[in-house]
């Protein structure tokens, strides 16, 4: 946790918060904080700054807050991701938040196992929890928007062209395609497939909506690694 | 597992192998393979190709092997990594192997907790196990060399300059440094610090040995994410 994130409900005054949950435990056990210590904080959806610990007890901590810095810029990106397996989903959500992706769409694909859609990790509170871990890691306060699209065809036919309009549309896909471009200018819409990749029909439909296939070399990367590698190359 | 890796001990003839371990289970449960099926294989340290399943029983499988393709090229890189915490170490070893890093040096740093050096995940068999998972993921056969250097100062003073000679030497470090270069030509020696970063003394010693600090932006990434992002940008 490189940034302590504050929820609206933590505020007991304009510049005072009281913490009682895992963040209190973290202060006590990881930071080994003491009264008077100062640490980096951010308000979810708002600014970042410093907190000074006024009072640190076994059951709660009271902090004085000064928020005066904007969070870091987000990437100019909409990321479409074929729904990963549940364990990978949690890590990918953290990665996406920590890398500064502002919009994530979790999409169905032929090679997404149906059971993946049943995972409790897709519940809004679970998604938010993982995103917050990513923001705490990279020092950001703004939660990415996450949309869930369980039907590939209607989404790609009826909505994707509009999302993609005015952006550079790309699909990460192994094969005889151009290399993923580097250091692009302007906004991007990027789609990354499931383990095993998109099927040809899906690549075709994504291309019709404006997303051109690009590849990252012959090595097959795990979804989390592919997301990071493509973003690091694009931006 | 995108490539079934074969050990020398699996071979019962020039082009025949017998499998009995987790790879047999994988064939049965994940691939749901049957006699006659064909799949991608590689010989550790050697070539890649196809196997045909001659016989698939509960306790063993016999395969006919044709090896005729070279493994993918490695990156022209020596990667120095401050020893990550044990759980992260395992994932980083997989990532390093899957991205094609040929040489990894696990190094001490002031911010590496002493207890990390006690982990059983540093035993050669444990390291090899994780590297193999990475090779299986990305379809490669050649194990990265992994060196362990528990003493920062003697290693950096006595050995690093020689390792770094003739390469572009870089240290990933947050701060007012040039951005990490993109699409470099020629070999690189790259050092990545622990959680919390190198201390200034370490950055100075690494610079004396020929490694110049570069940064990846203001976001603080987990070690595994930083490794992937830096490699994707450099190569």
Automatic annotation (TrEMBL), chains A, B:
It holds the Pfam family Methyltrans_RNA. It catalyses: uridine(1498) in 16S rRNA + S-adenosyl-L-methionine = N(3)-methyluridine(1498) in 16S rRNA + S-adenosyl-L-homocysteine + H(+). It is an enzyme of class 2 (transferase). Residues 73-234 form the Ribosomal RNA small subunit methyltransferase E methyltransferase domain. The keyword Transferase applies. Its EC number is 2.1.1.193. GO terms for cellular component: cytoplasm. The keyword S-adenosyl-L-methionine applies. Keywords: Cytoplasm, Methyltransferase, rRNA processing, S-adenosyl-L-methionine, Transferase. It is found in: Cytoplasm. GO terms for biological process: rRNA base methylation. GO terms for molecular function: rRNA (uridine-N3-)-methyltransferase activity. Belongs to the RNA methyltransferase RsmE family. Specifically methylates the N3 position of the uracil ring of uridine 1498 (m3U1498) in 16S rRNA. Acts on the fully assembled 30S ribosomal subunit. This is Ribosomal RNA small subunit methyltransferase E. It comes from Pseudomonas turukhanskensis. The lineage of its organism: Bacteria, Pseudomonadati, Pseudomonadota, Gammaproteobacteria, Pseudomonadales.
